[in-house]
Specification:
175 residues; mainly alpha
Length: 175
Amino acid sequence: MNLQGRVLRFLLIIVGIAVILHVIVPPVLLGMRPDMMLAMMFLGIMLFPSLPYVFLLSILTGLVSAITTSVPGGEIANLIDKPLTALFFYGVYFVLTKKIDAQVAAPILAACSTMVSGTIFLFLSLFIVGIFEGNFFTLFHTIVIPTAVFNTIFLVVLFPVANRIVDTRKLGIHV
């Protein structure tokens, strides 16, 4: 299998794991659940930091999130939120990893990017789709911040393990 095929296979495995995590995590408030898809999307971006892969991963993650969402109208929010968040994550990752190690950057990026994603999702849900009666700050504090904490811990644990498993040098993958 060629280089692109190997990378795509790993990205699909990451999305598959994300789907399982997204489906088994129960909704917490108003049908909203912590977004495990984000942590897996961030992991895929860190393992294969290339714009075409980031774009593909964000579209796949957005589509799967839209299909599996339990939030009424969350389909539109997910389709917009995931690509914007992925581009934000990739841009900051690209700049940050020139100055510090990727394993140090991972938790910072996970926390910040999850909050960016949550803000975009809530903004779209509240103001464009108009499905929530709740207060933005209440939803931000009860869903987004705990999700950011969880995604940060998740990536601190998972990134070094995944990085060893997917040793791109041994696989002949140079992105």
